[in-house]
UniProtKB/TrEMBL annotation:
InterPro entries to which the protein is assigned, alphabetical: RNaseH-like_sf
Origin: domain of life: Bacteria
Species, as recorded: Flammeovirga aprica JL-4
Organism lineage string: Bacteria, Pseudomonadati, Bacteroidota, Cytophagia, Cytophagales
Protein name in the entry: Transposase
Length: 202
């Protein structure tokens, strides 16, 4: 039992009840939605609030059951792993959306394995960077990290046989949080190829 969950369950039920009452005002919109709401049908396709369903839902506010096929695990360990389930779900969402693991435009096993490996390495690197950055309570999100990295660009210039590198403007809070969190040394606005090579070798 969790009081926090009980409050959430009550809030969710109240929201469901409000939607149920709105649907009852326009029965033509109900159709197959009655199972999702506190609504039941009577004769002649008339709909009313399902009071019994509401009472049953109230009885389980704050309770959740967790099952496992490993009976040797201690209960605190099972609960701890369950609390981290959201991280696994978040990882799958990140793979499917931001890292674009699918749709997959590869046909050979070698290319498919390479694509999946690259997505996995990208996620690990992203996760490591976020942990390093947020150790100082910078609170940089995945989207914030991607925005910052897209701003941190260097252009390669050639002039009279000399090579130069022009850095983009880093006067942005998200960019500064990433630079400071990863303890990166600042790069001058314009720098030489040798300086860039030395910078990358540090």
């Amino acid at each position: 039992y969790s009081e926090k969950r009980a409050n959430k369950d009550k809030y969710d039920r109240d929201q469901n009840l409000l939607k149920s009452q709105k649907l009852l005002q326009n029965p033509s919109l109900i159709k197959n939605k009655s199972r999702r709401y506190f609504i039941k049908s009577e004769v002649d396709e008339k709909y009313i609030l399902d009071e019994e369903k509401i009472k049953q839902a109230q009885k389980y506010d704050g309770f959740i059951s967790i099952s496992t096929n490993n009976k040797t695990l201690p209960i605190p360990l099972i609960l701890d792993h369950y609390r981290h389930l959201y991280q696994i779900e978040h990882t799958f969402r990140s793979f499917k959306s931001h890292l674009e693991v699918r749709p997959m435009f590869h046909w050979t096993e070698r290319r498919i394995r390479g694509h999946l490996s690259l997505c996995y390495m990208t996620y690990v690197l992203q996760h490591y960077m976020l942990r390093q950055i947020n150790q100082k309570n910078n609170k940089v999100s995945e989207n914030g990290l991607r925005r910052a990295l897209s701003r941190m660009q260097v252009s390669h210039l050639l002039q009279d046989g000399d090579e130069f590198y022009l850095r983009s403007n880093n006067d942005n809070e998200e960019v500064q949080n990433v630079i400071n969190g990863l303890k990166l040394s600042p790069i001058p606005s314009i720098t030489s190829k040798g300086h860039i090579i030395n910078y990358l070798q540090k």
